[in-house]
Amino acid sequence: MVKLNVLDYAVVDEGRSPKEAISETVELCKKAESLGYHRFWMAEHHDVSAFASSSPEMLMMHLLGKTETIRLGSGGVMIPHYSPLKTAENFRMLETLYPGRVDLGVGNTIGTKIVNRALNETRRRKQRYEDNISDIIKYVTNTDDPKHRYNDLTANPMSPDNPEMWMLSTSVRSAETAARQGTGYTFGLFPYASEDKTEIGQEAIRVYRENFTPSAVMKKPAVMVAPFVVAADTEEEADELARALDLWLLGKDNFSEFGRMPSVETAENYPYTETDRKNIESNRTRMVVGDKESVASQLKSITETFGADELMLIPLIPGRENRHRALEAIASEFKI
Question: From residue 8, how far is each of 161, 239, 269, 336 by CA, in Å?
Answer without folding.
Answer: 26, 20, 26, 19
